[in-house]
């Protein structure tokens, strides 16, 4: 975890600039609030650009991707850009009130704010509708249950580090790691194992415009009859002297050793499963959405991923009584849900 940086405080100081300009310029112009609002709008735009430029120098990654090395409050510096633009929009709305009425100026600001959040959701509708239609037909052909939306999964799965934050820097640097808007869920049983396949959108917590930077993903989960401690296992690309290197995130070394055994790793390699994790009573993996391209029929590929999770699950040498951490949770899609 990257140590907390003094650069992460920069947006806090920059946010004060538009507020100072409102009062300073207004007082310098015989309490002319219009001049103060105009100065605050220009100042907010300038500090937004300055903040973004500094963040680009510190957090610019390869291929134009943003990193989260310098962040405050759980977000990177570049993620404060929408807040600065919001301040510029509010000041601009106040400035235009000299030509239009205040209710209209407020309405324009509210409309712009709503559009910022609504337009990305409107753009996602095409993806959602295509996936829902295809997966409903697939579930009907298989005789499996289907739900257009699946509530409760946002709080059921958390993809942040399992280890608790132990320092102030780790607390401040921990990003939000939850999927949003779960939809097109299908649930059934394979070889006696209940499973769920559902699509969702993964926010990018360190993007410049988080609301506009959600990517579609597919979650394949197999459900257990009991809960186990959390663990995340991933195969590191490349091999060292013919050996497979595995990365593990877990707070209990003995438990990790029981889960990440040779048979489980061999099963991951055989089934081309790059990673999996256990969260409570769910064994799951998150993939780039196989159904994002509406011209590609990939539902069978999702089922193959579920089968790979079952294969790995059968290799785990975990003493269920010793490591049981709680009872099973209800299935995301109940048994009495309608068939596809």
Automatic annotation (TrEMBL):
The keyword Transmembrane helix applies. The chain crosses the membrane at residues 6-25, 37-58, 99-119. Keywords: Membrane, Transmembrane, Transmembrane helix. The keyword Membrane applies. This is Uncharacterized protein.
């Amino acid at each position: 975890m990257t140590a907390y940086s003094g650069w992460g405080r920069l947006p806090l100081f920059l946010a004060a600039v538009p507020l100072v300009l409102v009062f300073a310029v207004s007082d310098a112009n015989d309490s002319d609030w219009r001049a103060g609002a105009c100065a605050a709008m220009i100042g907010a735009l300038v500090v937004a650009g300055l903040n973004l430029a500094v963040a680009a120098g510190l957090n610019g990654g390869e291929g134009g991707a943003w990193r989260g090395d310098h962040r405050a409050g759980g977000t990177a510096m570049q993620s404060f850009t929408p807040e600065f633009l919001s301040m510029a929009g509010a000041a601009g709305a106040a400035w235009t009130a000299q030509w239009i009425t205040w209710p209209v100026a407020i309405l324009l600001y509210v409309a712009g704010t709503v559009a910022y959040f609504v337009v990305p959701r409107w753009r996602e509708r095409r993806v959602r509708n295509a996936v829902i239609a295809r997966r409903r037909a697939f579930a009907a052909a298989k005789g499996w249950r289907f739900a257009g939306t699946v509530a409760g999964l946002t709080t059921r799965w958390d993809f942040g580090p399992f280890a608790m934050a132990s320092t102030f820097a780790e607390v401040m640097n921990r990003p939000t790691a939850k999927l949003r808007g779960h939809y097109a869920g299908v649930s059934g049983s394979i070889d006696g194992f209940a499973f769920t396949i559902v699509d969702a959108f993964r926010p990018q917590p360190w993007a410049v415009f988080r609301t506009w930077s959600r990517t579609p993903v597919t979650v394949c989960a197999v459900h257990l009859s009991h809960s186990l401690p959390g663990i995340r296992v991933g195969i590191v690309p490349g091999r060292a002297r013919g050996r497979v290197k595995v990365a593990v995130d877990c707070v209990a070394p003995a438990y990790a050793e029981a889960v990440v055994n040779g048979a489980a790793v061999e099963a991951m390699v055989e089934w081309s499963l790059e990673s999996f994790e256990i969260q409570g009573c769910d064994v799951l993996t998150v993939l780039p959405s196989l159904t994002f391209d509406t011209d590609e029929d990939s539902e069978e590929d999702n089922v193959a991923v579920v089968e790979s999770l079952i294969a790995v699950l059968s290799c785990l040498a975990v003493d269920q009584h010793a490591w049981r951490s709680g009872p099973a949770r209800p299935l995301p899609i109940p048994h009495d849900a309608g068939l596809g």
